[in-house]
Design goal:
The protein folds into three domains: 174 residues, 3-Layer(aba) Sandwich (Rossmann fold); 158 residues, Rossmann fold (3-Layer(aba) Sandwich); 175 residues, Thiamin diphosphate (ThDP)-binding fold, Pyr/PP domains (Rossmann fold, 3-Layer(aba) Sandwich). It contains 24 helices and 20 strands. Strands 3-2-4-5-7-6 form a six-stranded parallel β-sheet, with helices on both faces. The protein has a six-stranded parallel β-sheet with strand order 11-10-9-12-13-14. A six-stranded parallel β-sheet has the order 16-15-17-18-20-19. The protein is globular and about 80 Å long.
Length: 657
């Protein structure tokens, strides 16, 4: 016999259906979730088990639902893994979190997903609806916690609205621009019996392939055709649109260098194209140096426009006032959000660029051929300088990141895996060598072959590697046979529990720990702060020491291979010299290609505890010798950096706090 409470909660459902619920022969409201996942072809739910979530998790026990529950040991791992899965499929990653602690633990990667426009649906099982107002254990206003970093956040008010809310949530996560959505459901609502015929019909899908206004495209073409020295900035929306080919054609037409937004989430332009100049610098003066001599900037898919640690209004804007700005992206918020745009095209990048290119072809800007030839020569010079730098690195006692990057490149190409690898990047102190050497080329790779995030909250990469490896192919046509995660020692310590899920799910991933035994990016950040404010009027702040012990990872020293082994990652090795890197990389790749377990390479970027820097130059010497990626703006950037600070900080020093 049905209880009075159930009858009150579901007055529209017959007593017969409710009686059947006790015999496990009917459907429950939680099954609306699985209707949608089946419709979209989503096969994973990520999470950390809690009592409230059991009704939803239980649904993954039924083979007909075709969904597996991927158990993680921390919610930020679960959401990170969901992000990795979403990156590969282009469909929303799905996770279930546990009341207030669950969404609170997820905030770091929820922020990363929001800033990187990753489609997610986060389901949070709230305490019982009849109890929430009385402030029970773990309950809070969950929507307020999540809404700042989501496209939509909502708490279900009645079981009857669950199908409508879920349809809206998945529709919104997939609508351009993609992003995370949060739905709180009182857990008792998930167990309400429903008729067998009560199902979600499907999820409305809004096509992202819409072209911009034709008159505005013509206006943009006129401005670009009249440019004397144009520059292109490619943001994440380019990579998500898989628009390399179209943007390459435009760069050739304009004779324009292509720089990427700082902390690009994808490979937004192929690095074998001579127009490619790497990412924008991470300093105010560096960015100013890039734009200094340009009259027109084409800002395409450019969302993360101020990825800086330090900014001072007194030092001037990032873009000079005389710079004409032309925008194209699928997100109105990112169009001219910081500066005035002469022309603003709202449209899908892949659909709109061919139209723009056709308008420019009859009237390309003057000097395009000469600029293209100059960039070809600069690209050859860059290649020679990087090869010389690699030779120097091979003579060092410790391992420089360039040695790792080159060894990875050679193994990927030798094994013909250019279209079947994903590189997950969180070695934030050493981005340039990996971005330069790894084959993010139009000879097989795709933008999704590179994974990073625009948010910068640490601990994203190891969790992401799980979701990436769970998917066999990407929506852009590449595979995931080889998944490599390069991560700094400090970042790897955020969520080492990731190793357990990798072992539990038998996911063979190559983890490369770039181990310098310190928070190196914070050492660099400290220098940037002192450089900006150490002698500034009204400030004059300097730390007691430029080598604070709290930025060291020592006493005791960390054993990363043993740490991974404790969580089930049974294989790995310590690599201490440059000469040993290539064979170690080969062994690691052999292992993950032929086994179901991961492999950990502890690469000693600093073999022993680093000595204390005596001057600012000593800590940046490694970067001073490393070639920059942007050879087109090399001299103007250097001049701006020198004029901004007596202590020269090279443009390839990362900006990270």
């Amino acid at each position: 016999m049905a209880t009075q409470q159930m009858a009150q909660a579901t007055p529209q459902i017959s007593d017969t259906v409710i009686e059947q619920a006790f015999d496990q022969t009917t459907r429950w409201t939680r099954d609306y979730v699985f209707d949608i996942l089946k419709d979209l072809g989503i096969h994973y739910i990520f999470g950390v088990p809690g009592t409230n979530e059991i009704p939803i998790i239980d649904g993954t026990s039924y083979p007909e639902n075709e969904v597996r529950y991927i158990e993680c040991l921390h919610e930020n791992i679960a959401i990170g893994a969901a992000m990795g899965s979403a990156r590969m499929t282009g469909k929303p990653g799905v996770m279930v979190v546990h009341v207030t602690p669950g969404i609170a633990h997820s905030i770091g990667n929820l922020f990363n997903a929001y800033r990187s426009q990753v489609p997610l649906v986060v389901l949070c099982c709230q305490q019982q609806n009849e109890l929430v107002t009385q402030e029970p254990l773990l309950a809070s206003n969950l929507v307020d916690l999540a809404k700042q970093y989501t496209k939509w956040a909502h708490e279900v008010r009645t079981p009857q609205e669950i199908p409508m809310v879920l349809q809206r949530a998945f529709k919104e996560a997939m609508a351009p621009p993609n992003g995370p959505v949060f739905v709180s459901i009182p857990w008792d609502f998930t167990m309400v019996a429903i008729e067998d015929e009560a199902k979600v019909k499907g999820v409305t899908r809004i096509s992202p392939h819409f072209t911009g206004d034709d008159a505005t495209i013509k206006q943009a073409a006129d401005i670009l055709s009249a440019a004397k020295n144009p520059v292109i900035v490619a943001g994440d929306a380019v990579g998500y649109a898989d628009a390399w080919k179209e943007l390459q054609e435009l760069a050739e037409l304009l004779g324009a260098p292509v720089v990427l937004q700082t902390f690009s989430s994808l490979a937004n332009f192929p690095n074998n194209d001579y127009h490619w100049q790497g990412e924008l610098p991470g300093s105010q003066a560096g960015v100013q140096g890039v734009f200094k001599n340009h009259d027109v900037a084409f800002l395409v898919g450019f969302g993360a426009q101020a990825q800086l640690a330090v900014y001072k209004y007194s030092d001037g804007p990032l873009f000079p006032p005389e710079l004409k700005q032309v925008y194209l992206t699928n997100n109105t918020w990112d169009i001219a959000k910081n500066y005035y745009g002469e022309s603003a095209i709202f449209g899908d990048i892949k659909a709109t660029l061919p139209i723009l290119n056709e308008y420019i072809k009859p009237n390309p800007p003057a000097g395009a051929a000469e600029r293209n030839e100059r960039m070809r020569l600069l690209s050859e010079k860059r290649t020679a300088d990087w090869d010389a730098y690699l030779e120097e690195a091979m003579e060092q006692e410790d391992i420089w990141a360039v040695v790792i990057a080159k060894a990875l490149k050679e193994e990927i190409e030798t094994r013909e895996l250019v279209d079947n690898f994903v590189y997950v990047h969180e070695a934030v102190s050493d981005a340039a060598p990996f971005q330069y050497y790894l084959p993010f080329t139009n000879n097989g790779a795709k933008p999704v072959s590179y994974y990073c995030v625009a948010g910068g909250s640490l601990g994203w990469s190891m969790p992401a590697s799980l979701g990436i490896k769970l998917e066999n192919t990407s929506s852009q046509g590449t595979g995931t046979k080889l998944v490599v995660n390069a991560v700094g020692d400090g970042s790897s310590l955020f969520y080492p529990q990731t190793y357990w899920t990798a072992a539990h799910e038998q996911l063979p991933i190559l983890y490369i720990i770039t181990n310098n035994q310190e928070y190196h990016t914070l050492q660099l950040g400290l220098q940037q702060v002192v450089g900006a404010y150490g002698n500034a009027p009204g400030y004059g702040w300097k730390p007691k020491t430029m080598d604070p012990p709290y930025l060291r990872l020592e006493r005791p020293k960390l054993d990363f291979v043993s740490l991974a082994k404790a969580f089930g990652g049974e294989h790995g090795e310590v690599v201490q010299t440059p000469a040993a890197v290539k064979d170690a990389i080969r062994r690691g790749i052999d292992h993950v290609l032929t086994n179901t377990t991961s492999y950990i390479l502890d690469m000693r970027i600093a073999g022993n505890t680093p000595t204390a820097p005596s001057t600012a130059d000593s800590i940046t010497a490694h970067y001073s010798r490393q070639p920059v990626l942007d050879y087109f703006h090399k001299e103007t950037v250097k001049a701006e950096l020198l004029s901004a600070s007596a202590a020269y900080l090279p443009s390839n020093i990362p900006s990270f706090f």
